[in-house]
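Shape matters. As here.
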Amino acid sequence: MLTPNTSLQQGNHRDQATGLRRMTQPRPVKVIAITGGKGGVGKTNVAVNMAMALAGDGKKVMLLDADFGLANVDVQLGLSPEYDLSHLIAGERNLEEIIVEGPRGIKIIPASSGIARMANLSQAEHAGVIRAFSELSYDVDYLLVDTAAGISDGVVSFCRASHEVIVVVCDEPASITDAYALIKVMNREHGVDHFHVLANMAHTAREGHELYNKLALAADHFLDTTLTYLGVVPQDERLRKAVQKQRAVVDLYPGSPSATAFKKIAGNVEKWPGARNASGQLEFFVERLINVEQELIGVKP
């Protein structure tokens, strides 16, 4: 469905049926979108360290860098992928060929960095990326989706298609305001009725709870949605050092306060109920993304 490349379009349709037939995993993958109302709140750091913490518990994890145009996952882990989503868009590689393996065996789908066109995909091109997921046959327990900041169509699509949405917020007025704006749009315009709030870079545990309470109070008064508190990641000098060294803090400094927090958060995520209405590896994610995309462009599924 990628209009610039007919062969990729045809391949997507052909491979979709093949890929879906291969999805025989007895337990469906849990798809979790990690987002935030604005940039700079540390959501990519959260996504990377959550992936590492889950993998450390023996889970099979895939991490999608869905911030098209401003990719950061590979940078944070010191990886240099030969191919990325721009090669998929151009029809030069399929999705399985661009996946790279990160620390602890996590599978990473890299986005391109600094390529303006990737941040402005057409609806048809975006839908083509979505359909490409049906080619995959990996054994995965969790797919973590690191979205872009803001409320673009891409962010809406990935959040709506995921089982769970984590909103990362820090103690800045713009962060809280933009997080609420994101939740409001997703709830009122797109029917998402449950969000998990993660307080990042908090000075104290109390500060983290207060950040959550501010959002929850507004949501209770004005929205038809439920917010739950996922946890807090404290300010931590070793986290800053890990970022500088392009490593995950749970890997480089496993005993640090931030690493301990990420492992606790991963443990909370593992207690969430299993995915509903899904019967395969990535089938739920693919099908819901396709349906969301069709809604956004006004096509009936």
In short: The chain has a mean pLDDT of 83. The radius of gyration is 18 Å. Strands lie at 30-35, 61-66, 100-101, 107-109, 142-147, 164-169, 194-202, 226-234.
